[in-house]
């Protein structure tokens, strides 16, 4: 899965964000923001008015763009589109679930950890090793 | 009495030797069984690497949480001193501009030939003024391995080289300061010092985020290898 795919070398790839206003503002201060000629941004600010459809579309767009290497998404936003986040298994762009102001990071919901959790089930280890 | 004590001591030592021999025999048989069970000598290494990267991932996530908390607090302080209308998302620059901070993605081949993505952060590298900015960014990036090398053997460094490196780092620092100010200028020319510290906190968070991305890459690569080995032993 992650290791088998060929990874093309890119010299200036972007970091995309789907998060709350303060997180996006902070990372934009750090110089992550990019606006292309069509005025499309590499971030989506999620507030109470943002629809799940808009989040889904942004996630699909960011994960399909070739110039994006990392998509960081607030974990509570990722929970809204969990089916999409969990089904994504490409190495690039890498999806990173980050905490937000009102929702602390919960490892139990992290897509990466739920993917590797398989190895910790006693059944799979026992049948594999013995 | 002394003779008796000596006798008992020799008996004890003999009994101890027998026990040791028995233990050695048991250990040999256990080792033999373990060697038979172990099809690949690298099994444990991959499993250990997987567990290590998993542990690292969780620790780094915890660290990211605290850095971000600091950043949010500083941003809130800046908003408090400057006013909510001066620090909000509506002021963000929506004109065409390139990201000043970008990533370099390379394929990092493992010993076992499995490729995994490796991310390198290039801070304040590509500004709107084109080639100049990206060149300095490269300079900054190329410098880091040299610095690491220098720390291993500090005596081998010549004074001329050091002065030229200091000069280069000053140019880079100037460029970085310029880019930082440019980024802050969205919120006005006179900004709260808290906003500057918030910017630094989010820069640190960004560095941590890239570390997490690399750990995630190692974790998934190790996971794939362990999974393959488990499936191999099932067959």
Automatic annotation (TrEMBL), chain A:
Keyword vocabulary terms for this entry: Hydrogen ion transport, Ion transport, Transport
Gene3D superfamilies: ATPase, V1 complex, subunit F
Complexes and interactors: V-ATPase is a heteromultimeric enzyme made up of two complexes: the ATP-hydrolytic V1 complex and the proton translocation V0 complex.
Family (UniProt): Belongs to the V-ATPase F subunit family.
Function of the protein: Subunit of the V1 complex of vacuolar(H+)-ATPase (V-ATPase), a multisubunit enzyme composed of a peripheral complex (V1) that hydrolyzes ATP and a membrane integral complex (V0) that translocates protons. V-ATPase is responsible for acidifying and maintaining the pH of intracellular compartments.
PANTHER family: V-TYPE PROTON ATPASE SUBUNIT F (PTHR13861:SF2), VACUOLAR ATP SYNTHASE SUBUNIT F (PTHR13861)
Protein's name according to its UniProt entry: V-type proton ATPase subunit F
Biological source species: Ficus carica (Common fig)
Lineage: Eukaryota, Viridiplantae, Streptophyta, Embryophyta, Tracheophyta
Automatic annotation (TrEMBL), chain B:
Compositional bias (Polar residues): 153-166
GO biological process: vacuolar proton-transporting V-type ATPase complex assembly
Pfam families: Vma22_CCDC115
GO MF terms, alphabetically ordered: unfolded protein binding
Compositional bias (Acidic residues): 16-28
Domain of life (superkingdom): Eukaryota
Chain positions covered by the region annotation Disordered: 1-40, 123-166
Family annotation (InterPro entries): Vma22/CCDC115
Name of protein: Vacuolar ATPase assembly protein VMA22
């Amino acid at each position: 899965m992650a290791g088998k795919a060929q990874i093309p070398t890119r010299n200036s790839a972007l970091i995309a964000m789907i998060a709350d206003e303060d997180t996006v503002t902070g990372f934009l201060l750090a110089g992550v923001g990019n606006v292309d000629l069509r005025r499309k941004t590499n971030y989506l600010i999620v507030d109470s008015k943002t629809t799940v459809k808009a989040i889904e579309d942004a996630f699909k767009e960011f994960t399909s763009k070739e110039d994006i290497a990392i998509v960081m998404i607030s974990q509570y936003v990722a929970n809204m589109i969990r089916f999409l986040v969990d089904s994504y298994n490409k190495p690039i762009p890498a999806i990173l679930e980050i905490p937000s102001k009102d929702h602390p990071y919960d490892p139990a919901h992290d897509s990466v950890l739920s993917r590797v959790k398989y190895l910790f089930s006693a059944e799979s280890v026992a049948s594999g090793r013995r | 009495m002394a003779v008796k004590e000596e006798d008992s001591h020799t008996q004890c030592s003999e009994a101890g030797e027998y026990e040791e021999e028995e233990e050695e025999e048991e250990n040999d048989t256990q080792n033999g069984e373990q060697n038979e069970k172990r099809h690949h000598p690298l099994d444990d290494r991959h499993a250990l690497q997987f567990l290590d990267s998993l542990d690292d991932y969780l620790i780094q996530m915890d660290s990211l949480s605290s850095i971000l908390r600091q950043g949010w607090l500083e941003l809130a302080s800046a908003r408090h001193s400057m006013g909510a209308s001066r620090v909000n998302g509506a002021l963000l620059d929506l004109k065409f501009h390139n990201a000043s901070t970008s990533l370099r993605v390379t394929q990092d081949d493992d010993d076992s030939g499995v490729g995994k993505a490796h991310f390198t952060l290039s801070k304040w590298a590509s500004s709107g003024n084109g080639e100049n900015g990206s060149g300095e960014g490269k300079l900054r990036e190329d410098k880091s391995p040299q610095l690491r090398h220098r720390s291993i053997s500090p005596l081998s460094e010549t004074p001329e080289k050091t002065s030229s490196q200091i000069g280069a780092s000053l140019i880079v620092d100037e460029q970085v300061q310029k880019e930082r100010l440019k980024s802050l200028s969205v919120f006005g020319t006179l900004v709260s010092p808290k906003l500057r510290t918030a910017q630094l906190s989010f820069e640190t968070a960004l560095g941590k985020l890239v570390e997490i991305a690399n750990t995630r890459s190692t974790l998934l690569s190790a996971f794939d290898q362990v999974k393959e080995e488990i499936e191999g032993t099932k067959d």
